[in-house]
Structures are given as structure tokens and as C-alpha cells.
Design brief:
- This protein is α/β, with parallel strands linked by helices.
- The protein has one domain: Rossmann fold (3-Layer(aba) Sandwich), CATH 3.40.50.
- Helices cover 33% and strands 21% of the residues.
- The protein has twelve helices and 14 strands.
- The two termini are 28 Å apart.
- The relative contact order is 0.16.
């Protein structure tokens, strides 16, 4: 069997299996998705910088749109660049999800977004749930150059569901380039008002047929996600040498200090981009394990990750990993083999904190807590753990700072840290 053919399907199936813990496993206490009682609040970023954001609508003319019947159509992406500003004000608010009002006005899209965000969708549309963004605000004057992190969301999601993680990185001096992967994202709103929904195939497919269709397109899906990341890096390289009239961050990006990061299926996109492109100096895979096949993508070209890797995952009991005992044993053997082949300075960090699950790397548990104090505290704690390990890894490899976290025993009760590399 070609492993690449199963990867994206495994990510999606594993995500469903893992998230289903919240309904049936008493050891997981993620909050109920009841209608919101209080509006959840995105935490104030911990760093000294304010948050700016600007969106770009870019088309890769070298790649056809494989979902279109128009042979002249090419791959189009919305890309949101989050960047540090000098002015940090806890009162600053911006849209949590740009174009939410436009999406809400279209019944089919409204229905999809209500399924994704449940009782919080009206609060997102109204702006009651907000980010700390000041759109198109002036870029911080210092430092002169910023390291860059590319972020990819999971299947059926959106990068805006990772606002807390993105804002925290930006507040500490990183530019985060969040790609809305068209047809993989739940919905993408383009600058001309067009909104493209996730490709789910014909409406009359049975669940089994939908699964088979997803499996058949897995290799192409991961390749396309990786190509999206590399295209956006190409575009930013071009714009970084332009003038500020054409690009807000012209000459401010340190493109020698670039990382790729993704959550769930986006983790596979990031990993594949790093396998193919040495311009990325570090790679972060957030709970993107490809159970029960492999930890990282494998293709016939045999390419492996050449950058230090942070494989940051939630602990999942075998009963929730979507495979037989024999398959899971083979998965762990394969995972060990793949991680051993990574460069020195790579880490596998398994978070074991209370309530941790696949969605904990995003804002989902915080939003679903609906103001419940205990559930909110748990969600914030797990977000903090994620942010702490992600930022420490990036500080080490993009800012070249001494970072003792991975050798510390302070968090061993909540995290198992294993160093890898040859």
C-alpha cells in the first residue's frame, strides 16, 4: 500500500476518533458544546507587542485549480499576515473571523459555520467574540527584521480557530503567515466577495463513500497543502524586496529565519513542505500524527525532514487512536523510526495535562467553555502549555536563544519530552 494515499484520511479519521473522547471518556473533561451563557474571551497575548493583521488574495498561476471545470482556473488562496505593532492595548479588538457577516448572510454557509462554532457563531458574527487585532496598523519599528512562521489549519477548519496561539507568537516578535487552504478550510472569503466552501464531494455520498473519496485524494491533498506553503514563501520573498506601498512588511521579514507549523492535517502540510524545502529552518507538527500509518508523511521520493522538528501531541489512549492493537504497535514502531531520522535537536513532546485532547491546540475548548470557570481555566492552561513549548522551540531555532525548557523537569508531570536526532 502506498502510505501517502492514506495520510490525509488518517489525519481526519484520527481527529474524529480523538475528539469523540469528549463524549464518552470520563478521563477527558472537555466542556460541553451547549449554547454560550457568557461570551468567551480570547486571552490577552503575553508578549510586549501589539497585533496587526492584513489579508492578501493571491493566485498561483503555476498550478491549476483541480476542483474547477475551467481549465484556465488556477489555485487561489487567502493569506493573512499577522505582525507585531508598537502599540499594545488590552482594549484593542478586531474581528475574530473576517467576513463572518458575509458568511452568515448565505444560508448554506451559515449552516456550516453554525455546525463548526455552535452557539458561539452568533457571537462571532456580532463581534462579541473578538481578537486583539488592529487591522493594517503600523508595523513595530524595532526590531528591524522579524522571524516568520507559516501556519496551516486542519481539514474542515480555519486558521482563525488558532487565534490565541497566533496572537501569542506575534506579541513576542514573530510574523505569522496563516494560510486559508482553499477547499480544505471550512469556508474561505476572497477579496471580491466570493466564498468557497470545503470540498466534501457530491451531497449524495454515503459516509463510507465519502471516506473512500477522502482516502483516494489524500496524497494529492498533502502535496497541495505543502505547495501552498511554498508558494506563499515564494510570494513573500518577492514582496519583501519591494517597497512598502506594495507590501506593508517590505524589507522587514527575516527570510533566513522561517518555520512551518500546522495543526492536525495542517501538521502534515507543514511536515511535507519541510521535507521538500530547505528554506524552512524549523518545523512544528501539532497533533498531526497519521494514525495508524505513520507519524509523518511518506512519499515515493523518500524525502525526510531536514530541519529540527517539534512533534507536539496530546496523549491519546489506544482505544481512541483509530486502529487495531497490531496496527497501533506498528504505528509506534514507524513513529520511532521516523523521529530517529530527524536532525539533532528534534523533540517529541506528549502533553498529558488534564482535559488535553486534539482540539486543545486551538481555541475550540475555550470557546466551548461558554464562560464556565472550570472549563475555561482548563482550556487556558492547555493553551498556555502549547504556547510555551511552541515559543521555546521557535526562540531556539529562529532567534537562536538559549532555551532550557526542553531539558527542564518542571513540566514532566504534564509532558513527556523525548529528544531525537542523528
Amino acid at each position: 500500500m502506498n502510505r501517502a494515499l492514506t495520510l490525509l484520511g488518517c489525519v481526519a479519521v484520527s481527529s474524529v476518533m480523538i475528539q469523540s473522547q469528549t463524549a464518552s471518556d470520563p478521563t477527558v473533561t472537555a466542556p460541553s458544546a451547549a449554547p454560550a451563557v457568557m461570551a468567551p474571551q480570547i486571552p490577552i497575548p503575553s508578549g510586549p507587542f501589539g497585533i496587526g493583521r492584513t489579508g492578501y488574495d493571491w493566485t498561483d498561476n503555476s498550478r491549476p485549480n483541480r476542483y474547477s471545470t475551467d481549465q484556465q482556473a488556477h489555485r487561489e488562496l487567502m493569506v493573512y499576515v499577522w505582525y507585531p505593532t508598537s502599540q499594545k492595548d488590552a482594549e484593542t479588538t478586531g474581528a475574530y473571523l473576517p467576513a463572518a457577516k458575509q458568511m452568515d448572510a448565505i444560508p448554506d454557509i451559515q449552516h456550516r459555520m453554525q455546525q463548526e462554532f455552535e452557539g458561539n457563531w452568533p457571537l462571532i458574527v456580532s463581534g462579541t467574540i473578538a481578537s486583539h487585532v488592529s487591522d493594517s496598523a503600523p508595523v513595530a519599528r524595532n526590531p528591524k527584521h522579524f522571524p516568520v512562521v507559516f501556519f496551516s489549519h486542519g481539514s474542515g477548519g480555519t486558521s482563525f480557530e488558532s487565534t490565541s496561539l497566533i496572537e501569542d507568537l506575534v506579541s513576542h516578535g514573530y510574523v505569522v503567515v496563516a494560510i486559508e487552504h482553499t477547499y480544505t478550510a471550512i469556508a474561505v472569503a476572497f477579496s471580491n466577495g466570493k466564498i468557497v466552501l470545503q470540498d466534501q464531494g457530491p451531497a449524495d455520498l454515503t459516509p463510507q463513500q465519502r471516506f473512500q473519496r477522502m482516502m483516494a485524494g489524500a496524497a494529492a491533498g498533502i502535496s497541495e497543502g505543502a505547495a501552498d506553503i511554498r508558494f506563499v514563501l515564494d510570494k513573500l520573498t518577492e514582496l519583501n524586496s519591494a517597497d512598502t506601498q506594495h507590501f506593508l512588511l517590505a524589507r522587514r521579514l527575516d527570510l533566513n529565519s522561517v518555520a512551518a507549523m500546522g495543526h492536525s492535517a495542517g501538521g502534515a502540510f507543514a511536515a511535507r513542505a519541510c521535507q521538500l524545502d530547505g528554506r524552512f529552518k524549523a518545523c512544528i507538527d501539532l497533533d498531526g500524527e497519521l494514525v495508524p500509518v505513520a507519524a509523518l508523511p511518506e512519499y515515493p521520493d523518500g524525502k525526510t525532514i531536514q530541519q529540527p522538528l517539534l512533534f507536539l501531541e496530546a496523549y491519546h489512549p489506544e482505544s481512541r487512536m483509530g486502529g487495531t492493537h497490531a496496527q497501533i504497535e506498528e504505528y509506534y514502531k514507524k513513529k520511532e523510526e521516523q523521529l530517529q531520522s530527524c536532525p539533532a535537536g528534534s523533540y517529541d513532546v506528549v502533553l498529558k495535562s488534564p482535559g488535553i485532547f486534539h482540539g486543545s491546540f486551538s481555541d475550540y475548548p475555550l470557546l466551548a467553555a461558554a464562560g464556565n470557570a472550570d472549563a475555561t481555566a482548563m482550556a487556558l492552561h492547555n493553551l498556555h502549555l502549547t504556547q510555551m513549548f511552541v515559543r521555546a522551540f521557535l526562540d531556539k531555532y529562529l532567534k537562536h536563544e538559549k532555551e532550557p525548557l526542553f531539558e527542564s523537569k518542571e513540566f514532566h508531570a504534564e509532558a513527556t519530552i523525548q529528544q531525537y536526532g542523528h
